[in-house]
Design brief:
With 158 residues, the protein is mainly α. Helices cover 89% and strands 0% of the residues.
Length: 158
Amino acid sequence: MEGIIYIAILMISIAFALTVGYIALVLHRVSKTLRTMGNTLGEVGQEMQQVTPQLTHMLQETNGMMDDIEEKMKATDSVFATVENMGNSINTINHVLMKNNSKLTDAEMEQKTKPYIEGIRWAETAFYLFDKWKRHTPTQNKQEQAADVSNNHSGREG
């Protein structure tokens, strides 16, 4: 009976030694993995230090572009307001003409609409000249042009 106890203790000792050996092997692999991960994170940190200034510069350029786009959009607001006013005027003229068409002769109608038609022609000429002037002004930079348009033309003149 004593032999059986010694054999059982021997088997338990061997099982414990195998378990300890396996745990040592697992811990060794975990330490290698953690060492590799530490090296990788160090490399990523160095790469991020190189990439971060570039990203910051790119974001600053994008912000500058957005400001420029916003200024240019503000510069076109007056043009769109003028076009809207012209559209409203033409719409109003159209309604008046439709109402009065049956009451007026063609000669009277032509005489009453002549000032409006002349105004539209002058507005088209002014837009054409303004556009041509903007294209042939090489000495001014684009921001000065946008500022001139937004400051000089509110779209609510006359």
